[in-house]
Amino acid sequence: MDTTHVRGAAELAGNTHSWQAQMIRPLCDEGVGTPASFLSKRFDVPSVTGSETLRISALGLYRCFINGQRVAADLMTPGWTAYDKRLIYQVYNVSDHLKPGENEIVVWLADGWYRSQLMWGNRPVFNCWGNEIATIAELRADAGSGDLIVGTDETWRSGLLPVRKSGIYFGEIYDARLEDRPADSGAAAIEFDMARLVWHDSPPVRELDPLPAIGSWMDEAGRTVYDFGQNAGGYVALTIEGEAGARVIVEHAEILDKNGQFENSNYRTAAARLEYTLKGGAPEHYRPHFTFQGFRYARVSIEGSASVTDILSIPISSVAPVAASFKCAQPLVNRLVENTIWSQRSNFIDVPTDCPQRDERLGWTGDAQIFASAACYLHDCHGFFVKWLHDLMADQREDGAIPHVSPDPTRMRPDLYPGFFGSTGWGDAIIIVPHTLYLHYGDTAILSETLPAMVKWVDFVWSISNGPIVSPPREWGQRGFSFGDWLQPKGPSAKPLPTVSDDVAATIYLYIAATLVADIAARMGETETATRMRGMSDEVKRAFAHEFITPAGRIGNDDQTSYALAIVHDLVPEAMTEKVREQFRHAIARCDGRIGTGFIGTPALLPALVKLGELGLAQQVFLQEEVPGWLYQVKRGATTIWERWDAIQEDGSIYHPQMNSYNHYAYGAVCQWLFESVAGFRPDPEKPGFKRIVFEPAILPELGPVTATHVIGQGEIFAGWTLSGDNVTYKVTVPDGCEGLLRLGQDYSEIVVDGRSVSAGTDTLLAAGTHEITFVIQTLRPGLVLAEASNNVPK
Ligand code: BGC
Q: Has residue 270 got a pLDDT over 50?
């Protein structure tokens, strides 16, 4: 049953309405890791008018029932925010739940992100935002500030739930014998600043379509392992029959080891476990209430007399439905796109997280910024990211440093995690994510809202070394520490390949940041800021060329990341382009035509090659199937994107289970390139929100035929091409209310648009509707001729 979110009159007016109710806690609650509790109240409703509205939030997670009927299908409410500064509340129309006469409201409460373990096992943070769970709720006669029917106060009663223990990483223990226990305890109001309450500004987390098991088998210990065929973030739904007191235990895993055994040591200290005790009798149905796990496999053990008669995997996510499609001639590429969609779903559970399985699941800023644009192609992420940006701003430090993760548990526990902020490439999320929302949705409000925080961030980065060349310290926790290009492959340890140095990575990011903020400030009419930022960006550019580009065209440590980022972001003086191109090709050749980039370098690698006109090499690097490479993992049966290129090695062994995830969307950022370069459409910054769509395809013959779609507010964008010999037919659809700009460079000739010849190198305006364009491509600039075997295979 569904209950729609209501935009109450007060919320729409931007006035979050003054609360009459109190934030109350259940007196029976005994703290983190102990049984979950409920708060309840009986109340009278003389007649039901149809506009009764519930406003509700909690410290912890809540689930609300009125007369035994659940209010809304939203999960993990009220969501995860920087709770000490912002606590989201939801608004629901609940008339359908009410009846004239006596009614009862019950609010279930559990630890959730508020006080269950966050951060990894050697320094876990419990009770991060407080040690008392509590709820605030008001049921009013209408969606404005109509009469209060009932609100939380000290007359409410409390009791314990069958949820005996729950935690985000932990999982859930549920004893069905303890259902329907009486409210035998009271409630107490706690001190709470109502100004922290903000109306929910993001889409709810919901269940997606269930996934049935595609296979199951019994292991040597008599446990049944189920394979759902798809790694996902969510939980299992069980149907069980058996005797009262029998127990069903579910463990989760993303992979099987090379001997086919259930393997989840990469979850580290996340127990990720469910325990259900049967009440006996009729078939019992169970899905956990206050947790989710990242898994493809579930291992079920049964103690006592019971059997599982049905089991499903239920993915959950804040994002649905899918807003784009990409299909080409390469099945592995098509699956790579699918895998990215799954990694986005699994990690867009209220906050953009790194991974959904281990003792982390944090809102890592670097991961979010590199993936933001791909994310906005694949799903509508507008509200989702706006909410997150509000937390990011709330978490920004006084001196402008942006934390590595947001919502940031380390801000609450600097004793455990000192200096967990200020990395270039990560903190830049404060600029790149709002700018992405501007490009994709035309949102200028988020730009003006975040601009002051952006400027503070740029000033912070500049201040690290007091100048245009940023030299970050090496140690974690020191001011300005940088992750550089996290997980950049180093090759064999006997003869490691060069990786980007921290100062090159940080300086390039200072340039990206100052340049973007200069543009944004200019758009917002903030001329002074624009001029100051432009001055900084020019200075960084000059200093970068002087310091990091040799006269022979080598950049930085002569590694792929240094080249890719410098080229994409225009840090290479035009006169040096040819030399740099040659050196870049050598750097890729040294890696045997494979990827040599990590988190921040990878999204730039193929765009850099396309920008240089190196289409043959771009195609070669993208389509090669060995490690490191996008398609290696797909070939090995991945159903989501791996954190590391070599998460499972060629011999099937698992790389470093202490730092490994099979569901990390970061490298899925390549989907942005598939849409923007291969299918060839992108939003024009001058008319953002796809009001004007730039069409500029890079024809990579081995990928053709290509088709791609993207759903925007006005309709569906389509682009697709086929190649016959050197002749391309490119078809595009521009939705109503939008216009297109076709941009075909000098490499293309004999261009005909809807039967009309146009010359290369000029922009052609395309009206809303479908267009057919034909043109001829030149012979591709070739890729690399690689030796059969090499010692240089990066590992
Ligand atoms: C996370 C990331 C993150 C990285 C930064 C990892 O533990 O999973 O994805 O960006 O740390 O170093």
A: yes
